[in-house]
Amino acid sequence: MSVAHPRQTPEQVLDRIDFTVLRRLEGLLQGDYRTLFRGGGLDFTDLRAYQPEDDTRHIDWNVTARMDAPFVRQFVEDRELTAWFLLDRSGSMDFGGDPDKAQTLTDTVVAMARLLTNGGNRIGAVFWDNDVQAVIEPRGGRNQVLRVAQQMMLPTTSDVTARPTDLARLGNAALASIRRRSLVFVVSDFVSEPGWERPLAMLAQRHEVVGMRIVDPAETELPQAGVMVIEDAETGEQLFVDTSNPGFRQRFADAARRREETIATVARRSRVDLHSISTDDDVVRSLVTMATARKKYRP
Questions:
Q1: What are the start-end ranges of the H helices in the chain?
Q2: Which residues contact 56 (CB under 8 A, 6 or more apart)?
Q3: How far is residue 61 CA from its own chain's centroid?
Q4: Residue 36 gets which letter from DSSP?
Q5: Where do the domains of the chain lie?
Q6: How far apart are CA 207 and CA 180, in angstroms?
Q7: C-alpha separations of 229 from 191, 226, 243, 280 in Å
Q8: 216, 220, 212: which is closest to 257 by C-alpha?
Q9: SS3 assignment for 226-295
Q10: Which CATH number is associated with domain 10-32+78-219+264-297?
Q11: Which residues of 220-242 are buried (b: 16+ CB within 10 A; e: fewer)?
């Protein structure tokens, strides 16, 4: 299980991740961590006729229309990969115990950033809370990871009574900001207003998009704690509920199940490779599981 470490400096966070996460990851993956990062840094080289096994995201629709037959773009992989982290810092990301979703996001992103930069790659980040809070342009090296960690540890500036998270706006912001083909990690709980399917699908047409969904077990199963107050982390709305009521617990579980199904369906339609990372799981185990799943996702 991950352990939260409040009031740490970015340097302390990075040292902790290096010591407790990175060494174990490199030993367990033994180079297979590259399966986490395939397909990001690519340069266009040529066109050829489409084959049944080709990735449809590489179809050149303008040439296809002119030739009246499908053509795909061919790419050559750069030695240097560029990865972007789109980081959801909305109110719902503060949910959870010790650690909460925000801490799990920080540990996961720092570990991923270290893996990438240790391989000579560049990372950038967009910090989001219904508006772009900050953008860190892609660079390599340890200092770049420190910049990202420092920004993640700053308090957000949004009002808790603001409208609920709208990931569609994050997708549109990324489309406007990320020009060169990259590997894009969307790190969020994906609790959002509807309508984010199209922007993320457009993003996935231009880039390889990996969704890293930060979840907490209490979001899908209520503890039997009697009468309690629950609060919407994004709107501040409060509600008295009786968690010992079987009917209420069943309705809560049904709503959670529908939310899970909706997120999975939208991610699949958007061609976003979605992985869940739980606050009660070990970061190393989560990333190894993700690497194993991506071997199957990418031929």
A1: 10-17, 23-29, 61-67, 101-118, 142-152, 167-177, 197-206, 246-269, 283-297
A2: none
A3: 28
A4: G
A5: 10-32+78-219+264-297, 43-76
A6: 8
A7: 20, 10, 10, 23
A8: 220
A9: CEEEEECCCCCCEEEEECCCHHHHHHHHHHHHHHHHHHHHHHHHCCCEEEEEECCCCHHHHHHHHHHHHH
A10: 3.40.50.410
A11: eebeeeeeeeeeebbeeeeeebe
Q: Is the peptide bond before 194 cis (omega within 30 degrees of 0)?
A: no
Which residue bears the tokens 């489409």?
Answer: 50
Report the residue count for the chain. Answer: 299
Predicted TM-score (pTM) of the model is 0.78
Owner of token pair 């968690």: 243
- Give pLDDT tens digits along the chain (299 positions): 444 445 678 888 889 988 888 888 877 776 555 656 654 444 555 677 888 767 776 788 887 887 788 888 766 555 578 999 999 998 888 877 778 899 999 999 999 999 889 888 899 999 998 889 999 999 999 999 999 999 998 887 655 445 678 889 999 999 988 988 889 999 999 988 888 889 999 998 888 899 999 998 888 777 776 667 666 666 666 677 777 788 878 888 888 889 889 999 988 888 888 999 999 888 888 888 888 887 765 54
Give 73's strand partners: 47
- Number of Cβ within 10 Å of residue 67's Cβ equals 12
